[in-house]
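Email to the structure team, subject: Lipoprotein model.

Hi all, the expression group asked for a predicted structure before they design truncation constructs. Nothing fancy, just the tokens so they can compare against earlier work. One-line instruction: predict Lipoprotein, return tokens.
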Amino acid sequence: MVSAARLPRPLLPVIAVVSVALIACGTESAGSGAVHSGVDRSELEARARAAQVSIKNVYVTKVPGYEVAKQSVGVLGSDGFSATYVKQETGVQIRLAVDQGSMDAANCPKTPLRGGNGDMGGVVECVRDGNRWYRTSGKQHEYASEVDGRLVQVNADTGTVDRATLRKAAEAAHTASDAELDAVLPPKQSSGGQPVERGDLPPVGDGAPNNKGGSTG
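Reply from the structure team: attached below.
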């Protein structure tokens, strides 16, 4: 079932949200640790390539009351992955980002927090919390951890998501199973991902549509 959640700017005013019931018949929702899927692995890999995301970088998490905003799912950098989890009742967001990288005491204060509104260019303060770094900057905070050469960052606004909730989201973050990949990856396009050819575009010039009568621009 697909529902809608209202998000604050600058994200889309209304964004489609993947319900935890999206995966059908004998499978489980994204973030649940499911390992079975009715979708062929090769199709999942093709969908990841079409999204320009390395399938190994696709992570999911599970936070009670939050669901993946489908339109937020996308590539980060060259082949990284990002997604936003939204609390439907309020529009509060938790952002998940995975990309190649590392973090230690030396580069933690030099590495910007990921995404969202607020002060992204401010001073970054780092505190070690178990095997993760708890990082704050302006109105943002996040947990960051290095896993197999990847940097997993879970980020939110300090005014809307408390540290305990953010920690739980970070602890639950894991590599997506096939069922979870099926839930979060953009669907396969029937056209093979290629743009639909338009017959009303001129072969020369600036490519502006032909608005003469009889055209379908």
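Helices lie at 41-50, 163-172, 178-184. The longest strand covers residues 80-87. Ping us if the truncation boundaries need rechecking.
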